[in-house]
Amino acid sequence: MKLTIVGGGGFRVPLVYGALLARREQLGLDEVVLYDIDEERLTRIGYVLDGLAAEKGVALPFRATTDLVDAVKGADFVFCAIRVGQLEGRVIDEDVPLGMGVLGQETTGPGGICFALRTIPVMTKLAETMAEHAPDGWLINFTNPAGMVTEALQRVLGDKVVGICDSPSGMCRRVAAVLGRDPKELWFDYFGLNHLGWLQGVRDGTGAPLLEELLADDAQLERFEEGRLFGGEWLRTIGMLPNEYLYYFYYAADTVNAIRTGNPRGAFLLQQQREFYARNGASPAAALADWRATRHDRERTYMAEARNAAGQEGEHDIEENSGYESEAMAVVEAIVNNTREVLILNTANRSALPFLDERAVVEVPCVVGRHGPIPMAMGEVPAHAASLISTMKDVERTTIEAALTGSEQLAIRALALHPLVPSVTTAREIFDGYRRRLPALEAFV
């Protein structure tokens, strides 16, 4: 089996490599290829991977390349996590709207629209390269905005593109832990779009209403992040547990105020990773230690702006072996071994959410086997959730068309229709601000 990692110089690649080390034999890995456009980043991460392999005492050879065709040719699986415009772009994604009192948010907010405008053309080129040189390969997409990018690429590769995110499964694990249960014993009734979903039910074999009991218990809600973040009063009002990213919709103004008095996430990560990659040339053991220390600082500050807005103290709960690398490996194992495991993934709707058409990419539980994910039917959902999903799906699709056509008109329309943008005038100002600072948008007309 050949597995390629596009964005192979990325900071989180060692997590993926560690997961591959643990599964090298059962998956029959013959070749692992790291692809990136930046040779220095590939070198730096290569030292970290060497250190990880030496520490674990196992061998999983890999090679690095800056040739995309060489990287994907004949690949069985391609993992992709890239950031077009790098973290400098993310800072702009967040900063321009914030200057107008609007929350940027780099995935579900206006920042996510800008991120997608420059990312989708690059990702489409990857999909077209795979269609020509790896037609039987699966593209496992981590690139954000994950749902939007996955929908754009399914136009090229169809259901061979699967979008993954560790946020829903992480929430489900945290809920199970508070309930004192093994998550594999429970059914999680989760629905929505990427970074825009809700858990509306948790059941065991007896059919007991476990989520309802949890939402009624403030002491239990205080034991996990989403419960503390949203608070029992609001959770009981909507009768569901939202994905943490919905905090940016429910408490947008509070988050803007918190960011203005603190340090935006993008700026923090930019400074941190500049320092990490600048320390190239260390031994594998030293590179691994440096990476781990940097990762700890990165993870503990995750969603800090939301916690600050909610008046919470403390740090993000770090779960080992539970990130998107675990989700990706679960998909690979389910396809290779036809396990028919149930995983929450981004894939074409079919009939999972009846108010959306069959090709709309949604994030729902899927049965995964050799033919990929088959989404489960979710049935009716609360009207307020369906309304927000429908609005955001229109925003996503308008953004995809804008990215593929270079249309300024469609880009402004996507921004103006976004629930976090207060007016058409503000949408125009945001787009003009992006275009002035991002060369990738200069060609939009």
Description:
The protein has 445 residues and is an alpha/beta fold. Among the domains are: 2-163, Rossmann fold (3-Layer(aba) Sandwich), CATH 3.40.50.720; 390-441, no CATH class. The protein is built from 20 helices and twelve strands. α6 links the parallel β5 and β6 (161-163). It starts with a strand and ends in an 8-residue tail after the last helix.
What layout of secondary structure does this protein have?
Layout (H helix, E strand, L loop, with lengths): L1 E5 L6 H15 L3 E5 L3 H18 L5 E4 L2 H5 L4 E4 L5 H13 L11 H24 L4 E4 L4 H12 L3 E3 L3 H13 L7 E7 L2 E8 L6 H6 L2 H4 L3 H6 L1 H7 L2 E2 L4 H4 L1 H9 L4 H14 L5 H17 L3 H6 L14 H14 L3 E8 L12 E9 L2 E4 L7 H23 L2 H10 L6 H14 L8
Parallel strand pairs: 1-2, 1-4, 2-3, 4-5, 5-6
Antiparallel strand pairs: 7-8, 8-9, 10-11, 11-12
Helix pairs in contact: 1-2, 1-17, 2-15, 4-5, 4-14, 4-20, 5-6, 5-18, 6-18, 14-15, 18-19, 19-20
Key terms:
single chain, 445 residues, alpha/beta, Rossmann fold, three-stranded antiparallel beta sheet, 53% helix, globular
Quote the distance from N terminus to C terminus: 44 Å
Strand runs, count? 12
The CATH class label of the domain at 2-163 is: Alpha Beta
In which range does the helix fraction lie?
40-55%
Alpha plus pi helix count: 20
Shape: globular
Radius of gyration, CA atoms, in whole angstroms = 21 Å
